[in-house]
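In the design runs reported in the main text, the only information available to the sequence generator was the tokenized backbone. The following block is the verbatim input for one such run; it is reproduced so that readers can re-run the procedure and compare outputs position by position.
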């Protein structure tokens, strides 16, 4: 069997959870089947890369994305199935299905209807295009992979026309050989983090959905003896970047030991930071699963996370960390941001005040990551879905030809 994997992100250009997922999934799939990866950007090893059309330079980024999808779909490449990830590549998968008659599988890492704030990043017209690409592909897909049970429910809410029988839950995974406890402190020293003080850590992109502004608000009430370390870069729109910068400024004006690392760090540095975190924070307001939770758990960090999306399927409340409830409005933002920040700070302080309990949670998180989220198992489940989907398509064509 040969599969085409269509994606925006692929190493070395990986900036989000979907890109991490694709990097490791592709590595394991290539051990099981013939795999061809097609991605966005400059030429690179391991994938065919495509750039937006020159004629669209200066136009809507969403329209440029669609031009890459057209190029991706032009050649079937002998594939038996096409598998697309995120709205950026979904249209490419759908066009490949229509043009070449191969089944199309979509992995839903997030959904545009659940992220109305994307209109601020893409513009109203761009958001309309991204929504069109996703909706068209998802509703016509032969199979849909949801990365959590919560995401499966979101698919059914956002796209009620989809037959629930076409949706399979296959979790994100973690490489627990790579993500493991690193006792060294050289990376901490490079970034100004002192291992002698408790470390409260955030790692993620500066986006509305990752909730960093709410953690900055919570920081005013977090134990003043702790270091607040924000490893946060790649802002996706100016308003969130401005709010983040102002929030960091407020914190620094009122407390010591506030460290903002304004870049997406290399993986070994992130692993070392995670390994030394006394509390790892995930204040997301939208998170279909959240690979970063698994990364932290694999490195032995106890997690305090918002109880949204698929996070409760990863972080076991009271066992591998603490979950913070948050009520969200129609716009996807907390109905009571001040209460959310206060509740988040209280949970962080609860673990800072009981280091032994936090250590037990970190150990339990490591065990859970090892036992239940291996990439090999996830790749095997994905190949099994490929085989079922291709076989169903063959049967349908045979029925039509004999009918």
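Verbatim output:
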């Amino acid at each position: 069997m040969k599969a085409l994997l269509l994606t925006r992100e692929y190493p070395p250009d990986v900036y989000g959870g979907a890109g991490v997922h694709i990097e490791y999934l592709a590595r394991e799939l290539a051990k099981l089947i013939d795999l061809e990866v097609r991605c966005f950007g400059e030429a690179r090893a391991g994938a065919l890369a495509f750039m937006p059309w020159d004629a669209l330079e200066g136009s809507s980024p969403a329209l440029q994305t669609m031009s890459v999808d057209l190029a991706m779909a032009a050649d079937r490449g002998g594939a038996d199935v096409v598998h697309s990830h995120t709205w950026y590549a979904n249209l490419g998968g759908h066009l490949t299905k229509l043009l070449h008659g191969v089944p199309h599988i979509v992995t839903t890492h997030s959904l545009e209807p659940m992220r109305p704030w994307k209109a601020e990043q893409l513009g109203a017209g761009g958001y309309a295009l991204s929504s069109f690409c996703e909706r068209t592909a998802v509703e016509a897909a032969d199979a849909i992979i949801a990365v959590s049970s919560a995401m499966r429910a979101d698919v059914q809410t956002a796209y009620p026309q989809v037959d629930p029988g076409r949706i399979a839950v296959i979790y994100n995974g973690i490489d627990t050989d790579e993500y493991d406890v690193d006792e060294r402190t050289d990376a901490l020293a490079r970034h100004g983090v002192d291992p002698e003080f408790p470390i409260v850590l955030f790692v993620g992109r500066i986006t509305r959905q990752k909730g960093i502004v709410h953690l900055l608000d919570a920081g005013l009430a977090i134990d003043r003896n702790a270091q607040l370390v924000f490893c946060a870069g790649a802002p996706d729109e100016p308003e969130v970047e401005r709010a983040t910068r102002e929030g960091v400024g407020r914190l620094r004006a009122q407390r010591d030991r506030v460290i903002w690392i304004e870049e997406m760090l290399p993986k070994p540095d992130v692993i070392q930071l995670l390994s030394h975190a006394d509390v790892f924070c995930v204040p997301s307001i939208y998170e279909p699963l959240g690979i970063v939770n698994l990364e932290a758990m694999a490195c032995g960090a106890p997690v305090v996370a918002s109880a949204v999306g698929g996070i409760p399927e990863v972080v076991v409340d009271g066992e591998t960390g603490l979950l913070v409830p948050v009520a969200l409005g129609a716009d996807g933002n907390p109905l009571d941001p001040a209460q959310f920040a206060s509740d988040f700070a209280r949970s962080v302080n609860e673990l800072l005040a009981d280091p032994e309990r936090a250590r037990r949670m970190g150990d339990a998180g490591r065990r859970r990551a090892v036992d239940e989220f291996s990439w090999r198992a996830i790749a095997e489940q994905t190949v099994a879905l490929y085989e079922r989907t291709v076989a169903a398509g063959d049967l349908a064509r045979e029925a039509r030809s004999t009918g």
